[in-house]
Amino acid sequence: MGNFLYRVRTALARFMYGRNGPDQLGFVTLWVSIGLEMVSSLLVKKLPVAGSLLYYVSLGLMVWTLFRMFSKNLARRRSENQRWLNWWWKVKNGGSGARARHADKEHKYFTCKACKTICRVPAGKGRVEITCPKCGAKIQGRT
After folding, report:
1. Which of 108, 107, 116, 109 is CA-nearest to residue 135?
2. What pTM did the predictor assign?
3. 116 - beta bridge partners?
4. pLDDT digits over 85-139, tens only?
5. Residue 65 is inside which H or E element, if any?
6. What Cα–Cα distance (Å) separates residue 51 from each residue in 39, 41, 55, 75?
């Protein structure tokens, strides 16, 4: 039995060689697909059209997940995954920085209109004009 499982494992490894395999975006689409499938199974009795629509969206996501998993275009799949990770990082960490800036009463924060850099200035200095350290643009405001 152990020899059979070893042969199956090596055959699967040979088949997956050069393919994308599972990644973070793949796991997200898989879980979203499973969630939509559950919701569609609950809705199919009361709202058959909505349940069917969610079922087909779930099926499409599952097919896309499998396509990405078995794809040999590694550069494209890694680019998609990196874009997802960058977006998710912004969503996940954007709120924590805003909460921390809001809680800081000793400083005033300005956002550069040119490069979106956040610049910190001591509060209570009146009207100020600062230069963005990243791009050199001028920012005016009251602290």
Report:
1. 116
2. 0.64
3. none
4. 999 998 887 777 777 778 888 999 898 888 888 888 988 888 989 898 888 889 8
5. helix 48-70
6. 8, 7, 6, 36
Q: Which of 72, 78, 67, 79 is nearest to 18 (CA)?
A: 72
Per the CB < 8 A criterion, the answer to whether 112 and 134 are in contact is: yes
Run of H or E including 118: strand 118-122
Tens digit of each residue's pLDDT (9 = 90 or more) over 26-85: 999 999 999 999 999 999 889 999 999 999 999 999 999 999 999 999 999 999 999 999
What are the angstrom distances between the C-alpha of 64 and each of 53, 78, 93? 17, 15, 28
Phi, psi of 37 (to 5 degrees): -65, -40
- Amino acid in position 43: L
CA angle 13, 18, 23 (to 5 degrees): 85
